[in-house]
Amino acid sequence: MLPPSVLAHLNRTLDVPLHLQVYEGLREAILEGTLKPSHRLPSTRAMSQHLGVSRNTVLLAFEQLLLEGYLESRVGDGTYVTHTLPDTSIQKPEVRLEQQGIQPQLSRRAQKLLQVQVTQYLSQPEYRAFRSGMPALKDFPFEEWRRLHARHWKNPPLQLLAYGDPRGYLPLREAISEYLNASRGVRCTPDQVLITSGSQQGLELASRLLLDEGDSLWMEDPGYLGARAAFQSSGLQVCPIPLDQEGMQVQYGEMHHPQARMAYVTPSHQYPLGITLSLTRRLELLKWARNSGAWILEDDYNSEYRYEGRPLNALQGLDQDGRVIYVGTFSKVLLPAVRMGYLVLPEHLIDLFIHARSLVDRMPPGVSQAVLAEFMQNGGFERHIRRMRSLYADRQAFFLQLAQQHFPDWLPFQPSPAGMHLVSHLGEGFSDRTLVEEARKAGVTVRALSPSYLQDAKQGLLFGYAGFPEDESILAARDLGRAFRVQK
Ligand SMILES: Cc1ncc(COP(=O)(O)O)c(C=O)c1O
């Protein structure tokens, strides 16, 4: 007979046919070593009676196991577990390794990668107030997007269905370079644009291709955890550069980390504090890059959302020496799940990046690029930006009212002329991580500021106001206010 544990879990209420359940149960028992090589199985008749299933069910399962080599039949003598199965294959790998006290073999690269903190809540399924970094998901022009997709999929040119240019679809690169020239003062041709899977791929590619393991780079402190993670996983030394009201303190960098080979900056709207990098600092940074042969990685992730005046043009437009790599994304201006971004590369780097990109994921997805290109060409993109700009300005004003009404005094806010979130700086004696936990218990999402620092961490909370309609914000503000008033 069979050992009692084998096939103990046959379940007639499942959608899975019984012969597959018998097959799966026997296969697992063989792989785990419960049924050893050369073990003689009961006859199909005995087994069907024992399990209370039809003989045909058992026959079907045996047939499949014979076909795959788990069982062998000996003429006139019944069915056996294959006698030649090597020892190494008869247990689940995790069990085998665990029993031998062996950790699964990972590369040194993978072990380093596992040390890197990725982000605070990338995989958390909470799209609720006041999660930061979230555009207004529900206000996306779904109908227009659906129509564009339907049309492009109806009769797509073969060029969009096969392998294409690793740089990306030319009409999309043309639309992006036109937009950047007109709106951001970026100087580029479509040839300099490389479509990426969000800015994260761009940051990762740039850090791996332009710097070697062990090289140093300047990063705004506090700064964007997604970028920091990309740099650390490439083995770079991240040198924290403090900020003042003009943004990154370039002279501090020159004095304390002169060996750095790259600077990562968010000049138009510093993440997370929202400072604009002054013109003086931009020129200092460019001068440093020119004199030391360093690179500047300019992350322009949400410059579209400025509510007063015009944003300062991109740093890239001031670069005379081909030192700036401009990083853009559609994650904030459209949706994070569109997974589309771009790099604007100095001409001398284009071939290198094309080469590397082809090795990673060959090229961006065809039809999605055509849809986005048309959305940009037909005015839908500009229209969406205008709508969102006005919506987010209103939402910020509304959030500030709610904060005044519901939040305790120790949680102060200042209006901001740009962006999608506000930062509240906390006084002595507060722990932002504890408050994040308290907020979570009250059903509200906020982000702690302190993990964004590498040195002299300050406590604060980030509130994303852009992504949530008034009714959701009212409820969240009320619940959070209640929870926080009990705190102190
Ligand atoms: C500074 C910064 N850059 C870029 C991004 C967007 O990343 P991705 O384009 O990979 O979605 C974010 C999103 O939170 C960000 O805060």
Automatic annotation (TrEMBL):
InterPro entries: Aminotransferase_I/II_large, HTH_trans_reg/aminotransferase, PyrdxlP-dep_Trfase, PyrdxlP-dep_Trfase_major, Tscrpt_reg_HTH_GntR, WH-like_DNA-bd_sf, WH_DNA-bd_sf
Range of residues in the leader sequence: none
Protein keywords: DNA-binding, Pyridoxal phosphate, Transcription, Transcription regulation
SMART domains: HTH_GNTR
Domain HTH gntR-type: 16-84
Family: In the C-terminal section; belongs to the class-I pyridoxal-phosphate-dependent aminotransferase family.
Name of protein: GntR family transcriptional regulator
Naturally occurring in which organism (per UniProt): Deinococcus roseus
